[in-house]
Specification:
Nucleotidyltransferase, domain 5; 40% helix; globular
Length: 124
């Protein structure tokens, strides 16, 4: 399967598989999955036993664009996304999650997002 991909993509998929095989979201402790593109950040809280997304947030949402338009700091958008996701999770009754960073290092925007989620009340 990985034979046809470039080396950079192969390494990313291997990292993702390595992280993902250790993390499973349950109904008591769902999985917080993060995807980071070049410009945006997408996150969702998933119950893997039912295969359902419980809560989702993305940096393209209206609340975040209005808030981060004022602040040109590099990590303002991931922080705002983390706080929004934590707020939505609290409304749904989710307080504990397993953090799935995917193929990304716990550094930079992913770290800023995770710290904002913790500040918003999520435990992981």
């Amino acid at each position: 399967m990985l034979r046809d991909y470039p080396k950079k993509v192969k390494n990313r998929l291997r990292r993702k598989r390595r992280v993902r095989k250790k993390i499973v979201g349950t109904s008591e402790r769902p999985r917080l999955s993060v995807f980071r593109s070049c410009k945006n950040l997408y996150a969702q809280i998933i119950d893997d036993t039912q295969g359902r997304t419980l809560v989702a947030a993305c940096s393209l949402s209206r609340e975040i664009r209005e808030q981060s338009g004022k602040d040109d700091e590099k990590y303002a958008t991931p922080r705002a996304t983390g706080l929004l996701l934590a707020k939505r999770a609290q409304e749904k009754g989710v307080t504990q999650v397993c953090f799935d960073r995917g193929a990304h290092l716990y550094h930079g925007r992913v770290r800023a997002f995770a710290e904002a989620c913790r500040k918003g009340g999520l435990v992981f």
